[in-house]
Amino acid sequence: MERAGGKAKVMKAEVSKKLLRGAVKSARRAMSQAFMPVLDNLLIEASEDGSIRVAATNLEIAIEQIVQGTVSKAGSTTVPARTFDDLLGTLDGDTVSLSLEEGETLAISAAGSHSRIKCIPSMEFPPIPAAGMGGLDVQAEDLGKFLPLITLAASRERERRPLNGVNFHYGQHGLRVAATDGYRLSVWDATVLNADEHPAFNLTIPLKAAKEVQRIFGKDSSIVTIQADKERRLSFVSPDKRLVVQAFDDDRKYPPVGNVIPNACNTRFRLPLPALSTAARQAALFGLGMVFRAEDPADGVSISSESAELGNFSTTLEVKELEGKAVFSLNSNFAKGVLQEAEAAGATAVTLEAIASNAPVVLRFSGIGAEDEFLHIIMPMYL
């Protein structure tokens, strides 16, 4: 939806306080330190069909949410976000009345309380691109399940752009979502529900935006449509929510992650995830290196870590499947992080694949989609 511009001076609407405040809090997460007064404001737009749109932007990310209410007069304005949010938190009653008065003042009434907030005309609010046609449909719950596993591999160093973002690449292989910090890599080959043709794109969005996609859509049961436009923007659209983000302008330098994924292995073994996740948490207490030894199925897989200052840890896990032999060491914090996220997503087992002690180790998880839908790679540590 495009903003209504400067037409609205008589907006009148009633809406659930709970729904409105939820939309306000969601939209506010797009805001950052503003260099324009209007960017400290939320766009409130009431339409004749009873929908009330709440939106915010920092010019890189825009978040909007639509709630249903009763609209007697359509219109729009922009209201100071913090003041409006704090005021809603103090109001009693279940319903809030909104009325835009002359002088660009928004009157807010609820349960006998009456307030007026000075606003800025909506015509000064930066336009948020209208939702396009078509796109790639994915399950919202898949975004909630896999994006936490993707984002944990992104670099946290601001100067390492574009590695401090999440790459969305659509082409002949389908939709691939990936992140890497150079030491680990997460790759999700997303299930696209529709067969509509969509132009190829290769866009990397900021880590914050990817986390907002997860937060906004991840608990929904709806379909989310992903759209890319010629201005290098990526949009995520559901029936009542939308996030638009400007991709990095240098993401063409994003490493070709497919070249890093080993196409064969010499050793493969499968372990129960809860037991391995516990072992990783214990190993991380004693050292950064988490050593795996897999040699004989009857002996299981031994895991150990040690520190000259703290002591050592070791355990043996029953192996479900074992092909070949291997000894390798992984960063215990990296392993702990991905195992905990996978367990939270519902995974029950993990298969580890290795070529040699100095080669990347691939982790594939059972219980969260097809076993080839997501993989995580950790670079080994020297033994």
Give the overall form. elongated
Could you estimate the helical fraction of the residues in percent?
10-25%
The assembly state of the depicted protein chains is single chain
Q: Catalogue the unreliable spans.
A: 1-8
Global structural class: alpha+beta
Keywords:
383 residues; alpha+beta; twelve-stranded antiparallel beta sheet; nine-stranded antiparallel beta sheet; 6 helices; 25 strands
What is the fold's blueprint, element by element?
Elements: E1 12-16, H1 17-28, E2 41-46, E3 51-57, E4 61-73, E5 75-80, H2 81-90, E6 95-101, E7 105-110, E8 113-118, E9 136-139, H3 140-151, E10 165-171, E11 174-180, E12 184-190, E13 201-206, H4 207-217, E14 223-228, E15 233-237, E16 241-246, E17 267-272, H5 273-284, E18 289-296, E19 300-307, E20 311-317, E21 321-323, E22 326-331, H6 332-345, E23 349-354, E24 361-366, E25 374-378
Antiparallel strand pairs: 1-4, 1-6, 2-3, 2-5, 3-4, 4-16, 6-7, 7-8, 9-14, 10-11, 10-13, 11-12, 12-25, 14-15, 15-16, 17-21, 17-23, 18-19, 18-22, 19-20, 23-24, 24-25
Can you walk through the features of this model?
There is one protein chain. This protein is α+β, with helices and mostly antiparallel strands and about 375 residues long. It is built from six helices and 25 strands. The N terminus is likely disordered. Helices cover about 20% and strands about 40% of the residues. The chain starts with 11 loop residues before the first strand and ends in a 5-residue tail after the last strand. Strands 1, 2, 3, 4, 5, 6, 7, 8, 9, 14, 15 and 16 form a twelve-stranded antiparallel β-sheet that branches. It has a nine-stranded antiparallel β-sheet with strand order 13-10-11-12-25-24-23-17-21.
